[in-house]
């Protein structure tokens, strides 16, 4: 936008105010396991919420790599927690968040391109779909993913009340 554009003057800076928070955990690839991402919508980024969502999915003693936002929920007593400050560098040896940044890029591209507008109530569905696509990107093509999705809906029912948010559905916290 040009500097004198009226729309530009009305835009405010980023920040978390009024935004849904999605927590992502990426398990890096090993010889025995492929790369896998886990996601969940969380109410806030407090230390207690972050830690209670990390502990069940990360084995004690594992290495955690996070960006500078991870400094306030550090778990040094349980994990080897290394932090990369993106204002200074993006990679320091094996310490980086590039794999998870790739996932966020794909998620944002799908929401902005394919879905255009996502209601916060339904955000977890879009995030879960993208996590499924990411976790199965090497093993399945589009028709294989569609077949798996169709097989998983047999015997399940999504009511209008659940779609419109009048009734909360029982959704697991992390996929």
Explain what the structure shows.
With 175 residues, the protein is of the alpha+beta class. It is built from six helices and four strands; from the N terminus they run αββαββαααα. The chain has a single domain (18-164), classed as Nucleotidyltransferase, domain 5. It has helices at residues 6-10, 47-54, 98-115, 123-135, 142-153, 160-164; strands at residues 21-27, 36-42, 63-67, 80-84. It has a two-stranded antiparallel ribbon. 7% of the residues are buried.
Quick tags:
175 residues; alpha+beta; Nucleotidyltransferase, domain 5; two-stranded antiparallel ribbon; two-stranded parallel ribbon; 6 helices
Briefly, what is this?
By secondary structure, the protein is α+β, with helices and mostly antiparallel strands. It has helices at residues 6-10, 47-54, 98-115, 123-135, 142-153, 160-164, and strands at 21-27, 36-42, 63-67, 80-84.
Number of helical regions: 6
User: Structural class per helix/strand content?
Assistant: alpha+beta
Helix content: 25-40%
What's the arrangement of strands in the largest beta sheet? 1-2
* Highest CATH level, the class: Alpha Beta
Per CATH, what is the topology?
Answer: Nucleotidyltransferase, domain 5
Low-confidence stretches: none
Task: State which percent range the strand residues make up.
Answer: 5-15%
Mind sketching the topology for me?
Blueprint: H1 6-10, E1 21-27, E2 36-42, H2 47-54, E3 63-67, E4 80-84, H3 98-115, H4 123-135, H5 142-153, H6 160-164
Parallel strand pairs: 3-4
Antiparallel strand pairs: 1-2
Helix pairs in contact: 3-4
């Amino acid at each position: 936008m040009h500097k004198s554009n009226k729309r530009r003057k009305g835009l405010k800076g980023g920040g978390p105010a009024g935004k849904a928070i999605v927590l992502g955990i990426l398990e890096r690839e090993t010889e025995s396991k492929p790369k896998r991402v886990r996601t969940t919508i969380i109410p806030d980024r407090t230390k207690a919420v972050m830690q209670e969502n990390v502990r069940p999915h990360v084995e004690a003693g594992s290495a955690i790599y996070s960006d500078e936002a991870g400094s306030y929920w550090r778990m040094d007593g349980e994990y080897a927690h290394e932090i990369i400050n993106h204002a200074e560098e993006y990679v320091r040896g094996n310490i980086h968040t590039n794999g998870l940044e790739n996932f966020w890029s794909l998620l944002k591209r799908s929401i902005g391109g394919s879905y255009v507008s996502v209601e916060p109530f339904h955000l977890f569905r879009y995030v879960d779909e993208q996590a499924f696509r990411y976790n199965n990107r090497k093993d399945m093509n589009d028709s294989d993913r569609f077949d798996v999705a169709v097989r998983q809906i047999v015997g399940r029912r999504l009511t209008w009340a659940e779609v419109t948010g009048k009734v909360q559905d029982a959704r697991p916290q992390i996929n």
